[in-house]
Each structure stands twice: as C-alpha cells, then as structure tokens.
Input
Amino acid sequence: MDTKARVIRYAQQEFLYHGYKNASLTRIAALSEIKPASIYHHFPRGKEEIYLSSQQAELTKYRTILHQLLSTTIQLEDYLLQFASWYFEQPPMNMQIITQMDMKALSKKGQGYLNQRLADYVFDPLTQGIQHFHNEFKPGIHTQRFVGVFFSLLTSVASAIQSGYDRGEAALSDSLNMLLHGVLKIEACDSPPALCYNSTPRPIDV
Output
C-alpha cells in the first residue's frame, strides 16, 4: 500500500471516530508512519482534501455493491436485504453526521463536491436500483422518499445493534418487513389504502 492510500485508510478511521471538526492530522500522520508535514506533499489542500478523498474511497464501495446486487437479485426485498446486510458489515457511515455536522465545516466547494459524490455514488444508484422493481410498489409511492426512509432505517437499526439493544439479523429482517409490509391489519374497504386499517379500539383492562 502506497503512502497516499495509507493516509486515506487511517483518515477514514480518524474522521469516523472524531468527525471532521475534531479530527487530527497529527494522529493521521502518526498512524500512517509519516511526519505531519509530509501529509501536505500528498494532499496540498490539507484536512479538507484528505476528508473528501477518504469519503470518496468509502462511497465508491457503495456504488459498486449496488450495481452488483442489481444484476443478481430479482425482488426488491432481496435487493434491500442484501444491501443492508452488506452495509452492516462496513465501517459505520452516519449520513446524518456527514450532512449536518461534517458538511458545515467544509468550504462551499467542498460541500458541493461531497453532495455530488453522495448523490452519484449512493443515492442515485440506490434510487435507480429500487426503480428497477417499480412493478412491486403500490401506485403513488415516491421512490426518493422511500430511499430516504430506508437509509434512516439502516442508521437506526445499526445504532441499536451497536448499542446492544437489538440483534443483527432479527433486527434487520423485522425492520425491513415492517417497512415493506407495514404493521397495521389491512381490512377490505372502499376507502383510500391509507384509511383501510382496523381502527377498532382495543379493550382496556380494568
């Protein structure tokens, strides 16, 4: 592994655990076994360039797996389940922290670059993959909103598993099942689908 790749590797860990604002180039240099000043030989623009390079290296893996899964799965549920299983095997990537905290510390140019990479490498490929299974959706489902809900679910389940509140496969399977199939009993009625559920109040024990 060359020096630049080694810096990116350890930078990913540093930014993951400390966030952009609190990440230390000194720690990254020490882990990479180079002098702090040498970092600027490989990344002349310093911390922001290292951060963006490390994020792109990580995001590239997302685009690759999403394209691979699209060619090997034939149902939406399998596509999402396999991606989620892969996602949980990767170093945690908290999109909320990236977009709401790290992003604010970047320059305007850096923000634009990262936003574009998130779209090109994660959200657009996932949206296109889900649209491939559009025939499985109910009419009127907004694909991009579904992608947002799905990613929020992944983040929540990952947090629960890491905190020890839930178990991996069971948490993933149950959560995905609730997302795709709902939790309410659907009853035959002539109302819009959103209103067709069992609304009978449950008896109260006294």
Q: What stands out?
A: The CA atoms of residues 185 and 200 lie 11 Å apart. Residues 199-206 have pLDDT under 50 and may be disordered.
